[in-house]
Amino acid sequence: MSILGNRVVRLEDPRFLTVGGTYVDDVPLDGALFVTYVRSTMAHAVISSIDTAEARVAPGVVAIFTAADVDLAPRPPAIPMLNMAMTRPWLSTDRVRFVGEPVAAVVSETRAAGVDAAELVFVDYEPLPAIVDPESAEQSEVLLFPDVGTNIAMDIGAMMGFSPAPDFFDGCDVVVRQRIVNNRVAPCPMEVRAAAAVWGPDGRLTQWASTQNPNALRDSLAEAYGLEPSQVRVIAPDVGGGFGAKTGLSTEEHLLPWIAKRVDRPVRFVETRTESMLTMGHGRGQTQFVELGGTRDGKVLAWRNVVLQDAGAYPGMGGFLSFMTRLMASGVYVIPKVEFGGKTVVTNTTPTTAYRGAGRPEAAAAIERAMDLFAVEIGMDPAEVRRANLIQKDQFPYATAMGATYDSGDYEQALDLLLDAAGYRALRDEQARRRAEGGTRQLGLGLAVYVEITSPVPGPEFGGVEVTADGKAVVRAGTFSHGQGHATAFAMIVADRLGIALEDIEFVQGDTDLIPTGQGTMGSRSLQTAGVAVAQASTQVADKAREVAANLLEAAPDDVVLDTASGNFHVAGSPTVTRSWSEVAAAAHADGDGLRVDIDFTPEGASFPFGAHLAVVEVDVETGRVELTRFVAVDDSGRILNPLITEGQRHGGIAQGVAQALMEEVRYDEDGNPVTANLADYAMISAAELPSFELVPMETPTPLNELGAKGIGESGTIGATPAVQNAVVDALSHLGVRHVDMPLTAERVWQAIQSAGEKA
Amino acid sequence: MIPAAFDYVRAGSADEAVSLLAQHGDDAKLLAGGHSLLPLMKLRLATPGVLVDVGRVAELSYVRDAGDEIAVGALTRHRDVEVSDALRADCGILSHVAGMVGDPQVRHRGTIGGSIAHGDPASDLPAVVLALGGTLVAQGPSGQREIAASDFFRGFLETALAPDELLTEIRVPKLAGGWSYQKFNRRAQDWAIVGAAAARVNGGTNVALVNMAATPVRATSVEQALAGGASVADAAASADEGTEPSADLNASADYRRHLARVLVRRALDEVG
Amino acid sequence: MKVSIAVNGEQQQHDVEPRVLLVHHLRETLGLTGTNVGCDTSSCGACTVLLDGESVKSCTVLAVQADGRSVTTIEGIGSAAAMHPVQAAFQEHHGLQCGFCTPGMVMAALSLLEEHPKPTEAEVREGLEGNLCRCTGYHNIVAAVMAAGGSKATA
Ligand SMILES: Cc1cc2nc3c(=O)[nH]c(=O)nc-3n(C[C@H](O)[C@H](O)[C@H](O)COP(=O)(O)OP(=O)(O)OC[C@H]3O[C@@H](n4cnc5c(N)ncnc54)[C@H](O)[C@@H]3O)c2cc1C
Ligand code: FES
Ligand code: FES
């Protein structure tokens, strides 16, 4: 029986549980100096002077660098769709554009000396008016990049030919409209960013990094320093979470090799949580103007979403993500007419970046909120409105108006499974009872049916399998597990195909000297790319081994079978005479070139996981306080390799989605000063605010790869946010509340009840 | 994350703490559990020159029966207050609320004295001691003095304690009647956005509010209304009278006022 | 200042600056890097260790405050070959992903189980309020702690 599909506990856990992982800051590095950045305390200002005299002579200080010292060219945005003139300096030159931007770098013998000295660097600022609200950015006379002449970093509407059709809503009985804020949130991996740089005597750079994509980091460092990729080695040891925010190019870590060269010593850097909250990048930050039209009997006919994406001070990944929002705009529904427009603007805030879901949660949130608005308007149950518009299972592959081709799915079944598991009817009855009683704790039910895109970026991924002379296996991958359990998942694939025991399979990743290429782990892509490469490599290794075994068994290769249950080779029909993996491997290594196959697998296309979520909330209508009491989720990510791991991915995603809906939000005051820059002020969700989740399994394999697997990393986040938001609005709909923006803090909810009451 | 450098001295007794404070003058700060002070120092929002560590003054960690009152040593940790049988039996509100401060790790370190001496209007225990009409005992170079809780909280993070004084004991009445504490916060580990403490003390009902002014405050208009025979609902409606709540990240002033009224009503309903 | 701390049962004497936090002392002087730092506001619990058997945030304790006491870190409770039941339960229930919060979670869980030997789900959730995890959504952590305590998870 195949090991695939089983709840295999993780092979990597004992180490984490008994001595802890080895994260960058745990890596010993002889003679390393510490880098501490002095950061802008102003959101928008001209730097009139930087006085480093006192800091330079402080105890333990080796050097201090400012922009005047740095001879590296400013960097344009990493994504060509963005305005390439909006370049970012390595250290602030004449002006600062957000609080937290690095202005100077202190290099010191100890960490403490660096923190002490950083306080002695005096920067004089001439404050400029700050743009905080993205909705004012386009018209504002204040320009972040005066030479560029605009605050618009990307005009997705113009690029994609958006022009609102005047007859767009013809034939609709009802059109609902809403401005929806998809709140800016902080990714908050528990490990902040850390890095170290060492130049070897041979002129080779070794960089340790807390990253999701070591090979991309290698290439970008090579480019920055004019080196061949082979002259750079990036080592990502254990990484304590990333959630998209560790995919980008961090200025702070990119400058380390330059500093290391100048001081001629290894250097290391670890940010504080406060620094991380200011500079790692934020997610979401999208304001959506949605319009949805349909008939009174529940058919949606036209859907328009115009989004304003906040890029923060320097446009990067976050500024581009509305492309993903656009691609997934119409969700799980058949909608005859779809329009999508919008712009990306710069503001004097932390740059935005990818965060779990990265553009797709925004799409799902918009349409799922709109479906509820529509349902209320026509007086239909939200579950039934959704059902009436779902893409049917015989319509796959399904091409959407925005250019996506959904591979496989059965959305109605997901919805049915969900309603059944939740006891939807009984919950509605309970809600009606509570409404009739008129008590303070009202019940709300929120639905979201979603589809998302995983492995969206095309191109190959690396996976390799080797059986060493002792009959054990090494599996290598160009993806980068930082919590996703690849050491176990990929070993399971090898074990399944080769019959080598899990304990005998070593997993290698995260060192560019050992892994030649790789895109890394983001976009829920790993299993369907590297996992498939590993599967194919395993098969080819088995083929090679059969040839060797055939020699040993004195048979034709085609007659030799590998019994994966026992891990032995034998001739078909005579299972008593066997050769073990160690015998075959020893022979292969002794006589030939061993047993190693490396594969670059290019998937046929992106895959589209889907599901349906239901949130049950109780709202205290006197205080506005929301309690999430149940969360039920159907998530279909194709064939499941290890349910234990995919359930964990769903739990984590759901918690983050709930957190965005209920409590988390990055906020600034009107001058651009951050007010949520640590974990005391930023309400990162804890166990005490969450229930256990009720997960319902569903598996619809994708035809796109031989594992039948889609991605599962982001599904939870995508469905959960609108489900919770819809639940809260649902709890209050009898009071006249139609929409409340996230996060649904007690005060927001209370305010919404108050203003609905005043209108009524 | 790294405090500015300081000198460290350890006091073995209350007397020694007082003399060390005198010796080091303005530059010195007492360190009890450190769970208000060290977080400030790590962010360099506080940079004392000398820390006088009283964390080991065992003689100030106790819960004692004192006739009509219960005496709690200032260095008693939140956790010890929480599980004290004497308090659970006769002043349940104090042990109950000690169990709501921060999180378990905080409660294993933070002390009742530190919490009161810090004088944060958002803290839980100061409002409870205020509602109970407790007494605070301070020891300084010229000996001991008692301060009524109602005279103790003077301004934002400002108390009646002189810089050279050590808070040694907190005395609270034994309760015969009901009590309630309503803490309204974002996350379980957070401070209250608003809190309301209510207890039957000496035949009357006392009410104090968390985070409704620069100090914890008594809701005197509620107390007077109740004394005058008003219903719970009517009395609670004036809960925010005379308060000056601030507006911050977590709530507007208006919302705080509203919460105060709701929470006081709920507290009074529970007190019965 | 000289401090003597029994760390994982071994007496350790060192000269430390008063401002050194216990977590930095453990990580940098003693090389016990299992204990992590996840925040600068005493909020996340990644640094949780046992001080005289009770959970504390070692980022909010000075090394000098631990003088003469005993400290237990993740390295001191079990080995890969012989895990502590709480460690084993975390593996069994997939209570960790990236592993960064894990040492602190496990130490907090030990203290919690000491105080509530057979905790309810609510007690576990409240008891872990000071430990943040971004990966697991807490679901499996709660299940692991309940299982280690011998109580059955509800979901
Ligand atoms: C994450 C976190 C969450 C928290 N949540 C809450 C919460 O929800 N509610 C709440 O009420 N509190 C909360 N706190 C604060 C906690 O209760 C503190 O422990 C308490 O406020 C201070 O007690 P301490 O013994 O730690 O004092 P320390 O930090 O040692 O001292 C605080 C101040 O009081 C002075 N001081 C201490 N003891 C004395 C004394 N005996 N005499 C005179 N002066 C003295 C010190 O010099 C210092 O200025 C939280 C703290 C943290 C870190
Ligand atoms: S590092 Fe100690 S609580 Fe976050
Ligand atoms: S497992 Fe990653 S933070 Fe908890």
Offer a concise description of the structure:
The complex is a heterotrimer of chains A (760), B (272) and C (155). By secondary structure, chain A is of the alpha+beta class.
Structural features, described:
The complex is a heterotrimer of chains A (760), B (272) and C (155). By secondary structure, chain A is α+β, with helices and mostly antiparallel strands. Chain A has 3 domains: 31-128, Aldehyde Oxidoreductase, domain 3 (Alpha-Beta Complex), CATH 3.90.1170.50; 286-455 and 606-759, 2-Layer Sandwich (Aldehyde Oxidoreductase, domain 4), CATH 3.30.365; 459-601, 2-Layer Sandwich (Aldehyde Oxidoreductase, domain 4). In chain A, 29% of the residues lie in helices and 23% in strands. Chain A contains 21 helices and 28 strands. Chain A has a 7-stranded mixed beta sheet, sandwiched between helices. A 5-stranded mixed beta sheet of chain A has the order 7-15-14-13-8. The longest helix of chain A has 28 residues, at 526-553. Chain B folds into 3 domains: 7-52, Uridine Diphospho-n-acetylenolpyruvylglucosamine Reductase, domain 2, CATH 3.30.43.10; 62-173, Uridine Diphospho-n-acetylenolpyruvylglucosamine Reductase, domain 3, CATH 3.30.465.10; 179-271, CO dehydrogenase flavoprotein, C-terminal domain (Enolase-like, domain 1), CATH 3.30.390.50. Chain B has helices spanning 14-24, 37-42, 78-82, 85-90, 92-98, 104-107, 112-118, 124-131, 149-152, 220-227, 232-236, 253-271, and strands at residues 7-10, 28-31, 50-53, 63-66, 69-73, 135-140, 143-148, 153-155, 158-159, 166-173, 179-184, 194-201, 204-210, 217-218. In chain B, strands 4-5-10-6-7 form a 5-stranded antiparallel beta sheet. In chain B, strands 11-12-13-14 form a 4-stranded antiparallel beta sheet, sandwiched between helices. Chain B has a 3-stranded parallel beta sheet with strand order 1-3-2, with helices on one face. In chain B, helix 5 (92-98) runs antiparallel to helix 8. By secondary structure, chain C is an alpha+beta fold. Chain C has 2 domains: 2-75, Beta-grasp domain (Ubiquitin-like (UB roll), Roll); 85-148, Orthogonal Bundle (DNA polymerase, domain 1), CATH 1.10.150.120. Chain C is built from 5 helices and 5 strands; from the N terminus they run E-E-H-E-E-E-H-H-H-H. Chain C has a 5-stranded mixed beta sheet, covered by helices on one side. Chain C is globular. Chains in contact: A-B, A-C, B-C. At the A-C interface, helix 1 and helix 19 of A face helix 2, helix 3, helix 4 and helix 5 of C. The structure holds flavin-adenine dinucleotide and FE2/S2 (inorganic) cluster (2 copies). Residues 37-39, 42-47, 57, 59 of chain C line the site of one FE2/S2 (inorganic) cluster. One FE2/S2 (inorganic) cluster sits between chains C (96-102, 133-136) and A (190, 240-241, 483).
